[in-house]
Design goal:
By secondary structure, the protein is α/β, with parallel strands linked by helices. Helices cover 25% and strands 14% of the residues. It has five helices and six strands. The strands form two sheets. Strands 5-2-1-6 form a four-stranded parallel beta sheet, covered by helices on one side. Strands 3-4 form a two-stranded antiparallel sheet. A hairpin with a 6-residue loop joins strand 3 and strand 4. Helix 1 crosses helix 4. The chain is globular. The chain starts with 19 loop residues before the first strand and ends in a 7-residue tail after the last strand.
Length: 159
Amino acid sequence: MDTLSYKTKSATPATIEKEWVVVDATDQVLGRLCSKVAKILRGKNKPDFTPFLDCGDNVIIVNADKVVMTNDKMNTREYLRYTGYPGGQRAFTPGDLMEKSFNKTVKAGKHPLFIKVLKGMLPKGPLGRSLLNNVYVYNGPNHPHEANNPKVIDINKMK
């Protein structure tokens, strides 16, 4: 048996091919959807996955306002934030973050609820922060990334 044919294929910055994909979040459970999106962002669905490089795809999530959470988690679950000052702990529910996404002050494509959930699923450090810039989340069915020719994928068919 020729053991030289079993070389480990590792991606380099020159060989990485990033694609644009569109995911529809209609009637999807938030955590399950975000865990699959995190795999795509990280590049774990590709055969040449390299843990220390950004080899994942750019993801566009549409219809984010139609995402669901099981039971009453939209109103009872709390996300915490700390301002850095004494008594500065703030609590937000997913419903609050969903309402905040409709404000004009929120940057387009940066949905606060999805960013909060995805940030916890990505690696901590510079790599995770750069991966978070590859996701764009929109409340409606339209997005301004048509020039990149994104392909629509069915997230339910992923493992």
